[in-house]
Design goal:
Structural class: alpha/beta
Shape: globular
Largest sheet: 5 strands, mixed
Radius of gyration: 23 Å
Helix content: 10-25%
CATH topology: Beta Polymerase, domain 2
Strand order of the largest sheet: 1-2-5-4-3
CATH superfamily: NADH:ubiquinone oxidoreductase Nqo5 subunit
Distance between the termini: 76 Å
Number of helices: 3
Strand content: 25-35%
Length: about 200
């Protein structure tokens, strides 16, 4: 029986050896290894991480978008949109967090990795739906959580908290209708409790 001595340092070294100059930076935080690569190298890196003998990250367990526009209270300077992937090697019992930033804030786009990990399919659709990140080469990139007529991407930091339209079923028209959101702001007055007469006790 083969045993593996898996430490964050071991994983970091294996990833650095496999990726070479395609690795922009790697760090260890809270016992986990994080690797950052460029958008141009993203797809090639995905294949390397899956196939390299000391990596074997054959399973994608999560993929999500991140909007850095308000990071560090707006003091952050750099690309706005990022995709974060959590990878697992079942055969080597190790994990990796992979980050890649979309180079264009106005139209964030990365290549799809669904041909590397099939599990990326719906995760990429979710990142598109909620953050507006496009994935070139995805076979069915459409909304997955919001309604088909939904406008905008609700996880972006600049998305209005009240949204744009709401959907409801109209019984008279026997169909779904859209109308402007009707959220009325209200002032909440806190209840004041006076201890000397709390609960009617004197």
């Amino acid at each position: 029986m083969t045993t593996f001595s898996v430490t964050p340092e071991t994983i970091q070294a294996a990833v650095a050896a496999a990726l070479g100059d395609k690795l922009k930076r790697a760090s260890i935080s809270l016992g986990e290894v994080e690797a950052v690569v460029s958008a141009d190298d993203y797809h090639a890196v995905a294949q390397m991480l899956r196939d390299a003998p000391n990596c074997k990250f054959e399973q994608l367990i999560d993929l999500c978008g991140v909007d850095y526009s308000e990071f560090k209270a707006g003091a952050y300077e750099g690309p706005r949109f990022c995709v974060v992937i959590q990878l697992l090697s079942v055969s080597l019992n190790q994990r990796l967090r992979l980050k890649v930033f979309a180079p264009d804030d106005a139209m964030p786009m990365l290549v799809s990795v669904t041909d590397v990990w099939g599990a990326a399919d719906w995760y990429e659709r979710e990142a598109f739906d909620l953050f507006g990140i496009m994935f070139d080469g995805h076979s069915d990139l459409r909304r997955i959580l919001t309604d088909y007529g939904f406008i905008g991407h609700p996880f972006r930091k600049d998305f209005p908290t009240s949204g744009y339209v709401e959907m409801r079923y109209d019984a008279e028209q026997a169909r779904v209708v859209y109308q402007p959101v009707t959220i009325e702001s209200r002032e909440i007055t806190p209840r004041i409790i006076r201890e000397e007469n709390y609960g009617g006790l004197k």
